[in-house]
Structure formats: structure tokens, C-alpha cells
Amino acid sequence: MPEKVSLYNSNLVEKIRNTALSPKFVDERIKQVTECIFGNSPYLSEIIIKYPEFFINCFDDGFENIFSNLINEIERAEYKEREEIEAGLRKNKAKAALLIAVGEICGEFTGSVAMRHLSEFADLCVKKAAEFLLIDYHNKKQINLPNSNNPIENTGLV
Question: Which of 79, 88, 99, 101 is 20 to 30 A from 50 (CA-CA)?
């Protein structure tokens, strides 16, 4: 468990207190992790504030389960517009960063598991982006895909 670190910004604490999930933040483990993150990482702190329910679910539902759910959500996502995929991947990148960092802080993920999860997440995001672009160019008749149901198949992309 991380050492207790004073919060670097009371405005962040107030943002948490003003959410419906604020009672969860009194749980000692969650409180310690939150204080550690707020004391050391403005980036992760903002993600907690933006997605407090996701943060709490990591503790309630288990880090591995949440990671699997995040991967499955991305795999199932069907993006139609460029802005939609950009926003979706950005949101999931933030969630993955928080999940993996907190998993490591809590000792739920070893360093090698965290790196494996980061790699798996990155590979999937690259695949989704490539599929989106290939389908987009195929629909615009700029390329002809051998199999539009599996856009990467037989395209030469590795």
C-alpha cells in the first residue's frame, strides 16, 4: 500500500466530495490510493475526477475484471466517424492508464503484468484505428479491401 501523501490540491478533493461517489472515498484503501495519486500525479488525479465511478469499480470489481471489460468494450466498439473513434480511444486510454497505475500501486499488478496490459491495450488501439481508416478509405473508394468484414486481413499490415 502506498505511503500517505498530503493532497496537492484541495480543489481536486472538493471535486470528489461533490460527486455521488464521495462516500466510497472514505474507504481506507481507496483514500490512501487517492491521496497518493493526488499528491504525485496531476494527470491521474484528473482522470479520477473525470471518471470516479470507473476508479471505484477497479476496487469493487477487481482490476483484472475491469481490464478485461475495458478490452472487450474496445473490441466491440464500432466507430462511424473520425471524431467518435478519437474521443473513444482517448477516453479508454485515460481509463487504462488509471487502471494500470492503480493496479500497480495497490500491488494487484506486477511490473510485468502492467507492461503486458499496456502492450495489449496499445496493440488493440492501433488495430481499431487501422481498421477504422481502412474501412473509411474503402467506403470512399480510395482503396479496395479484400475483406471489408476483416479490414486488416490480407492488407500487408503487420
Answer: 79
What does pTM read for this prediction?
0.82
Rounded CA-CA distance 34/44 in Å is 10
Report helix, strand or coil for 54.
helix
Residues 115-146: b if buried by 16+ CB within 10 A, e if exposed:
eebeeebeebbeebeebbebbbeeeeeeeebe
For residues 114, 34, 55, 93, the Cα torsion angle rounded to the nearest 10 degrees is -50
User: What digits encode the pLDDT tens for the residues 89-112?
Assistant: 999 999 999 999 999 999 999 999
